[in-house]
Design a protein that fits this description.
- The chain has about 220 residues and is mainly alpha-helical.
- The chain is about 65% helix and about 5% strand.
Length: about 220
């Protein structure tokens, strides 16, 4: 409050008027321009690697490398968006059933972003450990979706592994699907995180410094 002395000895007070509308903290964009520019390229990388692995019927996916890379550079939200877009495109181009795995892609992006924030991608050992944790979480959720929607079997390399486990050990389809999912993701996600670590190591520091989630 300010005080102004007027004529005839009368003292008047007035309050300054705020001439702009305060911007709330939540109005800030969760994704930077660099992250938005990187997401389409990461989606293309996911699609390309997924197509190669799918054609070879390998018991891995490698279709989350782009998601993990974006999450490591730009944070969990960017990883989540990349995962959603990747699975949505796959659902449109390959099979509508892949829409059901969007929650798995979101979990991968979120956990990869959190792992990067705590410094997991600063070393190869940390990257492999993060990949193992991400793989277990993704496998458990993926197994539930596969059992609920597809009876435990898919046309991918994981489906072939499920059949092999069931024939070898005589377990139920549900148990075989869970074992196959954990075994596949326990190999796939550490491998994917290791690839991301190698990419981050070779990126110029002046470039990674521009991303909020990049490891120092």
């Amino acid at each position: 409050t300010r005080v102004r002395r007027a004529s005839r000895g009368v003292v008047r007070t007035f309050r300054p008027v705020v001439c702009y509308r305060p911007v709330p903290l939540l109005a800030r964009r969760p994704l930077s321009t660099l992250a938005l520019a990187l997401i389409p390229r990461a989606v293309a990388l996911n699609l390309a690697l997924g197509a190669i692995v799918g054609a070879l019927k390998l018991p891995v996916y490698l279709d989350s490398v782009g998601t993990i890379l974006v999450a490591a550079l730009a944070g969990p939200w960017a990883g989540i968006v990349t995962g959603i877009v990747s699975n949505s495109v796959l659902g449109l181009l390959v099979s509508p059933t892949l829409f059901a795995f969007i929650p798995v892609a979101m979990v991968i992006g979120a956990l990869a972003g959190i792992a990067a924030r705590v410094g997991a991608f600063r070393s190869l050992a940390g990257s492999l450990t993060a990949g193992l944790a991400i793989g277990i979480a993704a496998a458990l959720l993926s197994a539930v979706i596969v059992i609920a929607l597809m009876g435990g079997l898919t046309a991918s390399g994981t489906g072939l592994l499920t059949i092999a486990i069931r024939a070898t050990f005589g377990v139920s389809v549900d148990s075989a699907a869970k074992i196959a999912a954990v075994a596949t993701d326990a190999l796939d996600k550490p491998l994917s995180c290791a690839l991301v670590y190698l990419v981050l190591e070779r990126l110029p520091r002046r470039l990674t410094a521009r991303f909020t989630g990049a490891p120092a």
